[in-house]
Amino acid sequence: MGVWLPPVIYFFKESMKKLVLIIVLIVALNSFAFAEFVVTLEWSPNTETDLAGYKVFVHVETQNYNYTTPAWQGTETTCQVTVPTTDNYYFVARAFDTEGFESLNSNEVIFYGKPTAPGNLRIIN
Amino acid sequence: MQILRVVLWLTIFSTSAFAWEGLDYYMYFGTTDEGITAAWSPGDGAQKYQIRGYHKEHKVYVDFGITENCEYTVVLPRSGHYIFEVRSLKQVGTGGITYAMSEWVQSIDPSVSTVDGNHRGWWVYGCVAPPGNLFF
Questions:
Q1: A24 vs chain B: nearest CA distance in angstroms?
Q2: Which of A4, A116, B20, B90 sits CB 3.0–4.6 Å from B43 for a disulfide?
Q3: Are residues A94 and A78 in the same domain?
Q4: Count of CB pairs separated by less than 8 Å, A with B
Q5: What's the CA gap between A30 and A25, in Å, rounded?
Q6: In a domain, A20, yes or no
Q7: What is the rounded CA–CA span in Å between residue A41 and residue A56?
Q8: Closest chain A residue to B71 measured between Cα atoms?
Q9: pTM of the model
């Protein structure tokens, strides 16, 4: 059974519901945002006249490159890729021309996202 | 038959997170009013280290703290058996979740823990500290 509330209180209650939802969303988005690295990559430009752009691929240690889904694609010679903080990441870039032909991989760079675990755990005193 | 199968399944897969039963861990003794200092070798890329203990009897983790050094002195908060754990941290942001973290290293894992320079698992038993300043 509904309870009659004065319009001012009813409006306040409804607004608070929306406000709480917005705050929850903002907190969730911030939490995810801070659990990620933004990795900036740069490379030397190609000289081909029919160059169409570049693709950047990334994989973690336990996987291989998936060349069907680049992490970034564009015409600039720098890019930013966002990765979670939970792993180490391997990057390569490829150039492609206007006919869709793709180059071989550039040199590979490794971004160490997480530190390695300590060792020789012992009691000293 | 179905019950037998369930019992068999539970018997085979009923492993706990820590397999301390029947293994030869070295036990350090301490009391709840004195510090016990653990040390470790640094992890690559680590800026800080987080230390915690697993209290066997209560089956809970106790956060001991975070340090930039490769050693940390802990005053055990209550009596019981503790497994020490440490992991590397690397700062990646300025708010919220700010660290990238390595896996935890456990003191009962002889591949990463040593006693007197030899690979061996260990844990700590904390006794209740005796009362002090007894007088007539």
A1: 14
A2: A116
A3: yes
A4: 117
A5: 8
A6: yes
A7: 9
A8: A124
A9: 0.60
DSSP string, B93-120: -SSSS-EEE---EETT-TTTBEETTEE-
Could you tell me if A71 and A51 lie in one domain? yes
Query: Which residues in chain A have Cβ-Cβ distances shorter than 8 Å to B73?
Result: 125
Please state the ipTM of this predicted complex. 0.79
Are residue A53 and residue A101 in the same domain, yes or no? yes
- Lowest-pLDDT range, A89-93, B72-76, B96-100? B96-100
Mark residue B117 as left, alpha or beta (left: phi above 0; alpha: psi -120 to 50; beta: remaining): left
pLDDT digits (tens, 9 = 90+) for B88-107: 998 775 555 568 889 999 99
For chain B, the structural domain boundaries read 43-129
Does residue A93 lie within any of the structural domains?
yes
Residues A4 and A49 reside in one and the same domain: no
Find where tokens 């007539």 sit: B136
Q: Does residue A1 fall inside a structural domain? A: yes
| Residue B11 confidence class, pLDDT cut points 50, 70, 90 | very low
- Tell me the chain B residues in contact with residue A36 when contact means C-beta distances shorter than 8 Å: 92
Mutation target vs B (from A39, A87, A114, A116; most B CBs, 10 A cutoff): A114
